[in-house]
Amino acid sequence: MASNIKAGNYESLGTYFSRVGYTSAWYGKQHWETLVNDFHDLGEDPTRVVKARFKDAGIEYPKGDDRLVEHAHTIDWSIELNEETVVTEQSVAFLEAHKNDTTPFFLGVSYVRPHFPFTVQPAYASQYLDMPLPTVLPGMYDDLSAAMKSDFAKYGMGNLTETDLKKCRGVYYGMIDCVDEQVGLVLQKLDELGLREKTIVIYVADHGEMMGQHGIWYKNNYFEGAARVPFIVSMPSSAGTFAKTSDAPVGLIDLFPTLCEACGLAPPDSLEGKRLVPILTGADDGASRVVVSENKRGGEPSRMIRTSDFKYCYYQNGFEQLYKVKSEDRDVEAVNLAADTGYASVKADLKAAALLSWNPDGLSDSDD
Question: What CA–CA distance (Å, rounded) separates 361 from 135?
């Protein structure tokens, strides 16, 4: 949990949009732990629904799936037994139920996949099972944080075979296809109901997946594979003309104030994110923006700051990382520049900005 979230000093998306008169619902993965998020409807737990479907189908519910890369596999049951299918069904039913409402709605559609355990139907994964592997350069292991080196050993990443790596990457790409299909069904329903031109649609993810880049897997690090996520916005055409793409650094913390402005609402005072509408319209190129992220893994607090050109990571044990992120090189984080004297002033400036008002003692340890 973020270091600056204190009980009573925030208002969540669900609480806010419910308070200002929206019909609110959130279906699927919640993962907001002890934070209060008062949506009107959270639906039935997809896991419970799926377990009942397995029972009705006379199929034993899978047990023992874990996060290990070498245990990635395809599954032989129908997509109706995927939790993602349940989330889509609940979301489509919500749209049907509120298609003629005069009050606005807020709908959160939250899928677990793509995520470990690495499992998906073969129809999604088969075309990806022989994808080329990322290049892992000598020295990349040395540039991992202590927490990532611990995970590297804990999960046996150094023992993975080429077969393990290709299969897991193929399954992960298949999980993306699976979710893409489900998102398409929700958007299709919006179109069928004539709601698309009345609805703001934003697609984001809470984290990425290293998929073997730098020789590591999972999240809990600041490399682009784990920390950089989709942030896709679809606005009604009646709202104006919007930029196609932007390279501006933005964060999930910017989602809340952006939604408020796009909906013509005053944001809560507690928000720290910045509105992105000027970037969406092209009025601001966002080149001066910075993004800050923080984590605590294995008892090791850390913080990252990313600009348009550089990414700097500070770990409380003194370890540092500095990478160019604006490069034609496909692997822009191949060389850690933290010890390069030619970048000393860049590092010093970014370090000062990263540590400004930081409260590492307020971080909760990430254990997933």
Answer: 37
